[in-house]
Predict the structure.
Amino acid sequence: MVEDVRRALMEGQCSVPAVGSVDAGVAPYLPYVVVDADGREVEPVSAYLRDLMLGDVSPLTCRSYGFGLLRWHRLIWFLQTSWEKVTEAEVAVLVGWLREARNPQRLRKPSGSSSPAGSVNLKTGKPSLREGYAPSTINHNLTVVSGFYAFHSRFGAGPVLNPVPASRERRQALAHRSPPEPAPVFRRGRLRQKVPAQAPRSVPDQLWDELFAVMGCDRDRALLEFYVSSGARASELLGIGLEDIDWPGQLVYVISKGTRVRQPVPASPNAFRYLGSYLAADGLPDAGQLVWRTRRGDPRPLTYWAMRRVLQRANDKLGTNWTLHDARHTAAARMAGDERLTLAEVQTILRHAHLDTTGRYLTARVEDMHDKLQEHYAQPRPQRTFAAGYDPEDIKAVFGG
């Protein structure tokens, strides 16, 4: 029975076969394509991704949307339903399946190298990723599927109604909102997951010193110093060449993730000192090559995943669960807490599009208030006194002894 299969998926009793894949495309206007179990391109998906690329999105956005649509098509292939005849019922099955299914990305971490899924690391205060799909991932998948059907509806294809429920209240609130006004509060659309608002997790100074101390070479020390002093994103900093380094000005030029524009980013003198030591020991890269390279075998560009593995090995030694993006949070928190820098200046350095994003780093954390709280708890409780002239017996009779 079809209903039994749907119920089993939503209760986690069965899973969707991992058929099809997201492959690299051959055309620049379509960097990624979704193929089915037989290796054939899913043309409706390609049409939508091609339209996204015409809107000047990043190739990584195209890849992310491709994986979201692959999950959706795996589900409707399993349910033997045409993409043009789906309803809200299939979207509900998608949400139920993702809430119960295991995320295959969680299987990539080395065994025994991290805390159990979903547990909180007592040293860092950060929770480990859960085994399943995060609520934000489920919401992103709903957004992808909704955009896919909204695109095809313009050409008279697909179901009459978009199968993904929309929040009309949210659309009305955002359609007429002025940027200076506070964000309106509205109900989530049906099937949308609740995503808790959490303050950015920066690394305390003492734990940062411990992390820096376990770095095994000047390359890794230089990268950490650049991350925590410049606030550059991990992938941005890994993509610089010698021509992107301004030694006298203490600047590096990175391709910004959002705008894809080459922009200057300041860094600390310590970062440039460690960078100089690294280049002196390992040699200068060839013309046109990237600065950061592997140190084993033939030199190759240091990828994001390789640098992530460097941090994972450090986490194994320290019993922590820091990520590369925590370094950017740390840089932002340090800058925002410096009275000599205005919030607008911090926004410029971090290249935030909105000042509200920078303002999130002004939020106080309980971990950072440890010393103040200890002083507060150590203070004696105030003793109640009364003005002279009152008889103690009268006070006792009125207020109790």
Summary: Residues 2-105+122-175 form one domain. The chain has two domains: 2-105+122-175, 205-362. The first strand starts at residue 21 and ends at 27.
